[in-house]
Design brief:
α9 packs parallel to α11. The protein is built from 14 helices and no strands. It is mainly α and about 425 residues long. About 80% of the residues lie in helices and about 0% in strands. InterPro entries: MFS, MFS_trans_sf. GO terms for molecular function: transmembrane transporter activity.
């Protein structure tokens, strides 16, 4: 049964659990999402080699700038793009975003200067950010049973973790037989297939009408976050997860290959241990959300993440201990933040959902930007044990703040009334 089109007129209450489902359309959309996810990951790996061919010894600067622009697209560009595209029909928007990314990859082989790479990477990243938030906005209309929606959140998290582990392997395999330019062309084809799958799905139309100035629409998501106790707590939980993620992504190689003197494969296994913990966390959410409120689950995950950081100061002095700590950190961060999608779906009016998903995406990536710098600087200047302890203290403060900002008495949808 096709999902209904919701507009501003009937968007005064959060979307109910109606029990309706269009699983065929959901699975087409999910496969398209996963294909785009992997295509993005593989293309990012190929971009590193392409940057070296373009800039030689300056490749590090080129790649670093490109990745900074990617983060900027998520932090600043995503909320602006969400406000600009709020009134557009979902299916044409998703297809256009896939075509835009395919076009960007097809242009990369022809660039001759770093500034051209920077423009393509920014537009590509902005399209990816809008695609993600639009996907998150559409899924509740296709899966209106609580159980189905919970499983979809777990699937998305598992897909993300598998992509981060498998994309480098896929890229390495492809680069054995084709050049980085060939990889870009191949991934562009993947985006075209993703667009075709979306075209075969039945999706809701316009979910909101354009209202107010652009500035008001851009600021609406952050204002709703600050107005709702549930979402204020989520802001602090983003800080907790950023502390852990930054420690793992920035310092794993330093610990494994620098301090322990092991090979690159050992670093890959350590990253995989973190991913395994994250997948375990996603799987446990399916039964947990049946019996526990989001607040209890997410705060428990944050507390586990804090324990993992403090435990790292003692246990991560050797490789086996590091693997165990990384599994715990992956589990904690997954449990702490994966239900955020469920939480936003529960409290948001349909007309506000994409703005809230965009705000969450910007918050998470904004904290990560700060976390990367902090984890790198602390590790380089003070060593790993103090870094674990400092990030553990910051994460603990974030967990306490989340508990205070999000009181247990909050049970009703809290983002239903626009602030001001």
């Amino acid at each position: 049964m096709p999902p209904s089109t919701h507009g501003d007129a009937d968007g005064d209450l959060p979307l109910p659990w109606s029990g309706a489902a269009d699983k065929a359309s959901y699975y087409r959309l999910f496969v398209a999402y996963v294909m785009a996810l992997f295509a993005t990951g593989v293309a990012t790996v190929a971009l590193a080699l392409f940057a070296y061919g373009l800039a030689g010894e300056g490749a590090g600067t080129v790649l670093g700038t490109a990745l900074s622009l990617k983060a900027l697209a998520y932090v600043v560009g995503a909320p602006v793009a969400a406000a600009l595209t709020l009134h557009l029909r979902r299916k044409p928007l998703l297809i256009t975003l896939d075509l835009l990314r395919a076009g960007g990859l097809l242009l990369l082989p022809f660039v001759t200067a770093p500034w051209q790479v920077f423009i393509i990477v920014f537009v590509f990243s902005l399209a990816s950010a809008v695609f993600t938030q639009t996907y998150q906005t559409v899924v509740p209309y296709l899966l209106a049973r609580r159980e189905d929606y919970t499983k979809s959140i777990a699937r998305s998290r598992i897909a993300t973790e598998l992509e981060s582990s498998l994309s480098p392997l896929l890229a390495a395999g492809l680069l054995l037989v084709v050049t980085s330019r060939g990889v870009f062309v191949g991934m562009a084809v993947v985006f075209l297939i993703s667009a075709w799958l979306i075209g075969r799905a039945t999706l809701p139309g316009t979910l909101a009408q354009r209202s107010g100035s652009l500035a008001m629409r851009i600021l609406r998501g952050p204002r709703l976050f600050l107005a709702a106790p549930d979402l204020r707590g989520l802001i602090a939980l983003n800080l907790v997860v950023a502390c852990v993620t930054a420690m793992v992504l920035v310092n794993t190689v330093v610990l494994v290959q620098g301090d322990f003197g092991l090979e690159r494969r050992a670093s890959a296994l350590a990253f995989a241990a973190f991913g395994v913990g994250s997948i375990l966390g996603a799987v446990t959410l399916i039964p947990s959300l049946r019996i526990l409120p989001e607040r209890a689950i997410m705060l428990a995950g944050a507390a586990l993440a804090c324990l993992g950081l403090f435990g790292g100061a003692v246990l991560a002095t050797g490789y086996p201990g590091l693997l165990g700590v990384w599994v715990v950190l992956g589990l904690g961060t997954s449990v702490a933040l994966t239900p955020a999608t469920f939480l936003i779906r529960r409290v948001a009016r349909p007309r506000d959902s994409q703005l809230l998903f965009a705000a969450q995406l910007a918050l998470a990536n904004g904290f990560l930007l700060v976390g990367y710098s902090a984890a790198g600087w602390l590790g380089a200047v003070h060593g790993m044990t103090p870094t674990f302890l400092v990030l553990g203290v910051v994460a603990t403060l974030g967990t306490v703040a989340a508990g205070k900002l999000w009181p247990p008495a909050v049970t009703e949808p809290a983002a239903g009334s626009p602030p001001g």
